[in-house]
Amino acid sequence: MTTVPESTRLMLELEGTVEENLNRHLGVAKEWMPHEYVPWDEGRNFADLGGEAWDPEQSRVSPIARTSLEVNLLTEDNLPSYHREIERAFGRDGAWGTWVHRWTAEEGRHGICIRDYLLVTRAVDPVELERARMQTMEAGYDSGDKALLNVFAYVSFQELATRISHRNTGKYTQDPLCEKLLARVAMDENLHMLFYRNLVQASLELSPDAMMRAITDEVVQFQMPGAVIPSFVRKAALIAKAGIYDLRIHHDEVIWPLLRQWKVFELEGLGEVGEKARDELDRFLKALDTQASRFEERRAAAEARSAARRA
């Protein structure tokens, strides 16, 4: 008698859920055109075509806004690696494969329109941006062969984190055109998050212990896919200091909304594995909350000192 691998069993049992959510997604996703979000009339040649080389004075956004825009774009640039990872986990057949390619096609718009906007408006240094793109894509992204349930959990948190990062970056730029563009990108990310979130919900019903273990692992070990970007740690620190994306946002606006949606701490009927994972999650969240509060206190103190020096 042949034993069916657990991942295969789950994929077969979740096929209907995937198809249902694929159809829901296709029904609510609105067509949009990247070129309609780029102010093309602001464009002009760079130096090699007889124009002007980039200079920081040409940018209408602050240095920290430029950093956040670059990190967001470089994260989107690694789409070929993400496609490989999602296709490896979900396969090419049936509703699973249809979703993989639809998701990839929609994600592809993000890098296109953000890059066009940044280059046309001269918001960032195009030479440094291209060098960073090469380095980022050469590094690629490796999920470490996550198990299927871990993939569900990770992409749920990651898509929500990306949505918030885009929205907050757009607001921080204080450029209405940029904010409109990133708000549109964030809408895609939100729909993607809903798809994956619903897979986690269904998996909690099918394999509650294993899904709880996966949720805990991905919360505790979470790392943004942009971690391979050159100087990511330094850039992430600047972004956090500006309040665009920090530990408090990650705790309050990314992790907890999903945990509440899944009713993680109300779920009954868990076995030993699930209960142990939930206890670990609870301890980690309390520690993360404390860490976020300490960061906020240090940031507020630094801002107060800076304001005093300016007075």
From TrEMBL:
Gene3D superfamilies: Ribonucleotide Reductase, subunit A (1.10.620.20). Keywords: Fatty acid biosynthesis, Fatty acid metabolism, Iron, Lipid biosynthesis, Lipid metabolism, Metal-binding, Oxidoreductase. Pfam families: FA_desaturase_2. The keyword Lipid biosynthesis applies. CDD domains: Acyl_ACP_Desat. Its cofactor is Fe(2+). The keyword Coiled coil does not apply. Homodimer. Belongs to the fatty acid desaturase type 2 family. This is Acyl-ACP desaturase.
